[in-house]
Fold this protein.
Amino acid sequence: MGTYRGQVNKNNKPHGKGVYVFSKKSKYEGMFKNGNIHGKGFFIYSNGSKHVGEFKSNFADGKGIRYLKNGKVLKGIWKKGELLHKNK
């Protein structure tokens, strides 16, 4: 699992602004909805890559920028964690 710090709903699930640190050293900071990563925020992956943008149901979803560990930058529209439309 991991650790969560932030706002919760009446069922004690992450809801609103918060930070979740996963057991594999990944980290998400931003908005949550009923226990899920949902809204604007950023995710730092255990491999050093970072995603900044919109999230829905625990996936990068909407406008976002992913900064890869090798220096490459992927900017565009994301759906369920996959890049759909790349912006220049």
The chain has a mean pLDDT of 95. The radius of gyration is 13 Å. DSSP finds no helices and eight strands in the chain.
